[in-house]
Amino acid sequence: MESKQVKLNELAWEEVRAGVCRKVVHGEKGTVVLNKLDSGHEARPHQHPHEQIALILKGQAKFTVGDKVYNLDEGDVVVIPPNIIHFAEVTNGQECLNLDVFVPRREDYVNTTTGSADQ
């Protein structure tokens, strides 16, 4: 795989569901996702075989990871092991932006409409 530049500001938001949008960029072995969570979005507990590292860029969120709860502010990071049920909720009534890094690469996100790096 060759190096490449992706301008996140130029990618369109993909609506995942009401109150949740994302922009996706893939590398050869990992995926980066910029998520926009609106206050009051429906939290959906889920799990996946990927390690996930979530960084809060704007706003505040409560991440429930298994039986632990993390209240995150801007600049905070939570590491979510593979196959653990988890979800996020916006806690300050304002939009939250978080950047997720997934390893291995999220093959289920490859065909998103946002214009990822390998499309």
Output the structural class: mainly beta
Report how far apart the termini are: 13 Å
- What order do the strands of the largest sheet run in, or round the barrel if closed? 1-2-3-9-4-7
Binned strand content: 35-45%
Q: Determine the number of helices (DSSP H or I, runs of at least 4 residues).
A: 0
The average pLDDT is 92
Characterize the main sheet: 6 strands, antiparallel
For the secondary structure, the number of strands is: 9
Rg, alpha carbons: 14 Å
Blueprint of the fold:
Elements: E1 14-17, E2 20-26, E3 31-37, E4 51-58, E5 61-65, E6 68-72, E7 77-80, E8 86-90, E9 96-103
Antiparallel strand pairs: 1-2, 2-3, 3-9, 4-7, 4-9, 5-6, 5-8
Would you kindly provide a brief summary of this structure?
This protein is 0% helix and 45% strand. It has 119 residues and is mostly beta strands.
Structure write-up:
With 119 residues, this protein is mainly beta. The protein has no helices and nine strands. 0% of the residues lie in helices and 45% in strands. It starts with 13 loop residues before the first strand and ends in a 16-residue tail after the last strand. The chain has strands spanning 14-17, 20-26, 31-37, 51-58, 61-65, 68-72, 77-80, 86-90, 96-103. The strands form two sheets. It has a six-stranded antiparallel sheet with strand order 1-2-3-9-4-7, with no helix packed on it.
